[in-house]
Amino acid sequence: MSEREVVITEVALRDGSHAISHSFTTEQVTNVVKSLDDANVPYIEVSHGDGLGGSSIQYGFSKTNEMELIEAAVNAAERSAIAVLLLPGIGTVEDLKEAEKIGAKMVRVATHVTEADVSKQHIQLAKELGMETVGFLMMSHMVPAEKLLEQALLMESYGADTVYVVDSAGALLPHEVRERISLLKENLSVKVGFHAHNNLSLAMANTLAAIEEGATRIDGSVRCLGAGAGNTQTEVLVSVLDRLNIQTGIDIYKMMDLAEDIVAPILQEPQEITKGSLVLGYAGVYSSFLLHAYRAAEKYRLDPRDILIELGKRKVVGGQEDMIIDVASELAGYKIS
Amino acid sequence: MSEREVVITEVALRDGSHAISHSFTTEQVTNVVKSLDDANVPYIEVSHGDGLGGSSIQYGFSKTNEMELIEAAVNAAERSAIAVLLLPGIGTVEDLKEAEKIGAKMVRVATHVTEADVSKQHIQLAKELGMETVGFLMMSHMVPAEKLLEQALLMESYGADTVYVVDSAGALLPHEVRERISLLKENLSVKVGFHAHNNLSLAMANTLAAIEEGATRIDGSVRCLGAGAGNTQTEVLVSVLDRLNIQTGIDIYKMMDLAEDIVAPILQEPQEITKGSLVLGYAGVYSSFLLHAYRAAEKYRLDPRDILIELGKRKVVGGQEDMIIDVASELAGYKIS
């Protein structure tokens, strides 16, 4: 195996859970992990789309208990390490202990980009458990690079081995990725990672920009199986990096084959950039806002996009869904006056 | 209308013809053109996928005569100019005269990147007819930038108003696009354009690179409706350019709406990056080679990708399909020895 210059984490079995309504089966996970392992993918993330403990009325119930899926993944992998995602407040320390016990080797502790401080307990526990630990700063487009660095330094101080810039809404432009990654590279001693979404058809452009600026941990999803318009398409990414002579250690032909033969049949519908995902990326807002904005738009006779764009400008975050009505009524008022 | 800094040509009704087996109807063309016109798209290309006269056993028969489609487009457009594509050898001067007579305002005369000299007659005729004229250098990844410039200068000398770098196989990497566009910008007095394909998920990255280097004419296809993995997705492109404060003069909301409501229902299947299109982009070969390579691979018990990659390295061009068997037998021989 060649040395890996870029280390890829495959997220289709976690982020892709959103795209198929959390319906992964043990058999699907086993088959996908076996083929990814055979292609020499170093890390494979398996969890509910919203991380450990995500199965709920609010985030959608998993068809199969995620611990069963994680266990199946661990059993199917000979070389690949199985990773889990944990959002403090959704997943608990007990969930993390259980995942570690059944064989998860890496955890990514994810918080909103301004709330790194809530990751302290979980990052520290993960290190105590001997797990490789990643700090995962979601919605990284919502704050200036300096604020992102401040939060990344917190995660580093808690013991994270890597800090990720996570473009949850697929809203970052390439120059914004460069600015963020380069600032983190200059100021962190730990590794820097990048997780893209393709809402603006920029997942590959942003990923290459991140790698050029020094990110060495990169997320991909086979066949774009991820939330919204999906992530950076893994089999395409490894092909492009090969053309650029950047070593991933992954077998390109095997990745192409498993994408077509093992993963594509799992998709309920192919991953395209639809109007919904485009609007979310353009406005830079949470996907959970979409339905609320459409409802508010109907009530106030507005274009839902105007509401979403205004929410993006005001940097409204998850949990502030009541702001959607406020913004809508305000926009409607402006129109009348 | 704001001044257009980037002038977009919508190619879904021409390049997209490949994706739906040349089955466009007059009604579809009328509806798409009306909506694009309403969104203020400046140029709309309408032709068989292989240009005027492409309807044939070799390239696939059009369901509806393309002159009827062009006429429908001209009648549906109030502000947009209707463009046609012409590949000398497939389309004739008579085809061009007929298209101009029924109202086409722009022609793009397309040749293989090393064969600009065959465009002379058609470019000159188009200028005599008073048409806006574009030289369209296909498979631009196959030659070094200096050779591309030489060919572009020929097209300029024949009277082309714009010369396009055309990444027919979706094989160019962003730095290769930069090198080509910047060299053309430095040495041509006419406008420079860029046409991407998304086989390596780089259509948007390459398009932005081209614009940064000074390309002002850009092709897009709504909902990625184009050959292979499609082109730069127009409604996404105008949204990204808006975020970058680059004026296209196009109404973003209307583009998003027509993509979802008018164009998406036309697609026979959504445009994804499949194994086939990925391999073509990775190898940098003609799409027509794919089936031949699979047949040769079966005969010689090879992986078809090895054949395609070798064909790409040897820069085999369309019309040299007999080389596919030569390469396959040679590769098989290497394996035995």
From TrEMBL, chains A, B:
Transmembrane segments: none
InterPro entries: 2-IPM_HCS-like (IPR050073), 4OH_2_O-val_aldolase (IPR017629), Aldolase_TIM (IPR013785), DmpG_comm (IPR012425), DRE_TIM_HOA (IPR035685), Pterin-binding_dom (IPR000489), PYR_CT (IPR000891)
UniProt KW Metal-binding keyword: yes
UniProt: Mn(2+) binding residues: D15, H195, H197
EC number(s) given by UniProt: 4.1.3.39
GO biological process terms, semicolon-separated: L-leucine biosynthetic process; pteridine-containing compound metabolic process
SUPFAM superfamilies: Aldolase, post-HMGL domain-like
Site feature location: Transition state stabilizer: R14
PROSITE patterns membership: PTERIN_BINDING (PS50972), PYR_CT (PS50991)
Domain of life of the organism encoding this protein: Bacteria
Record bears the keyword Lyase: yes
UniProt keyword list: Aromatic hydrocarbons catabolism, Lyase, Manganese, Metal-binding
Domain Pyruvate carboxyltransferase: residue ranges: 6-256
Boundaries of every Pterin-binding domain copy: 1-185
GO molecular function term, any single one: 2-isopropylmalate synthase activity
Amino-acid positions noted as binding substrate in the UniProt annotation, renumbered to this chain: R14, D15, S168, H195, Y286
Active site: H18
Annotated catalysed reactions: (S)-4-hydroxy-2-oxopentanoate = acetaldehyde + pyruvate; (S)-4-hydroxy-2-oxohexanoate = propanal + pyruvate
Family membership: Belongs to the 4-hydroxy-2-oxovalerate aldolase family.
Protein name as it appears in the record: 4-hydroxy-2-oxovalerate aldolase
Record organism: Alteribacillus iranensis
